[in-house]
Amino acid sequence: MEAITEEQIRLFRLRTHHLDRWYPLSDALRVAGACGFQNTPPGAWEIAFQNRIRDCTREDMVRMLEVEKTLLQAWSIRGVPLVFPTAESDTFLSALVARECEPWIYTQGIQLALDHLQMHLEELLPLLVQVMPQLDGQVDKSKTLLDQTLADWMLPVLPAEKRDLWNQPSMYGSPDKQTVGGAVVSFLLRPCAFMGLVVFGRREGISPAFTS
User: Fold this and answer.
1) Which terminus of the chain, N or C, has fewer Cβ atoms within 10 Å?
2) pTM value > 0.70
């Protein structure tokens, strides 16, 4: 069998990621669907698009993401904000949903909060899912606001003896801005995204917005 050269591997990767030539705007969704475009730091996905489609303007990208909604931004592979074709949500979102007896990926850091509450992730995630429909038609203009809003909505459905612990300052670096409940929500938003319950909305200034 003929050995594969490093040059062949590089060319294969360039072709697979649609970096081997300029593509027409009509191929935008196919190009975005190859592996999605990571949007960290904010705006990175726009640069990724323009490195593949010469004639794609920012107005084109805003139209696809915010008007036509043929593109979607949500937490996805690697737990990062990713822009991908809405029609391929099964690949970029629901494929990441934990199966029975599987752990949820990208949630390992939650353990400190779980130990503090003496609760399990499997207890808390259904409670967050229960209140998520309240997000329908609402837009929260920062991640911090989203975390705390959902934490406040969860408070009445928590066991009564856990509510004081829920409202105590976070153990994750910003106790003046985040409660333990807000920290729990922050970790559980990835599973909620995989279930199609929360997505990124229209960016306003430097802050992303979030909605259902």
Assistant:
1) N
2) yes
Q: 167 near 183, Cβ under 8 Å?
A: no
d(CA 192, CA 185): 10
Query: What is the C-alpha to C-alpha distance for residues 160 and 83, in angstroms, rounded to an integer?
Result: 40
Q: Each residue of 155-191: pLDDT tens digit? A: 999 999 999 999 999 999 888 889 999 999 999 999 9
Residue corresponding to tokens 């409202």: 167
Q: Over 70: is that where the pLDDT of 206 sits?
A: no
Can the peptide bond before residue 41 be classed as cis, meaning omega within 30 degrees of 0? Answer: yes
- In one letter, which amino acid is 156? P
Secondary structure of residue 58 in the 3-state scheme:
helix
Q: Which of 85, 59, 82, 52 is nearest to 71 (CA)?
A: 85
Per-domain residue ranges for the chain? Answer: 6-92, 98-211
Say whether the peptide bond before residue 156 is cis (omega within 30 degrees of 0): no
Closest to 212 in 3D by CA, of 133, 127, 131: 133
Q: Tell me: pLDDT of 205 over 70.
A: no
43: left (phi over 0), alpha (psi -120 to 50) or beta: left
For residue 207, what are the β-bridge partners? 204
Three-state DSSP state, 131: helix
Residue pair 84/92 in contact (Cβ under 8 Å)? The answer is yes
Query: What is the Cα–Cα distance from 2 to 8, expressed in whole angstroms?
Result: 12
Over residues 42-53, the pLDDT tens digits come to 889 999 999 999
Q: Is the dihedral of CA 70, 71, 77, 79 positive or negative?
A: negative
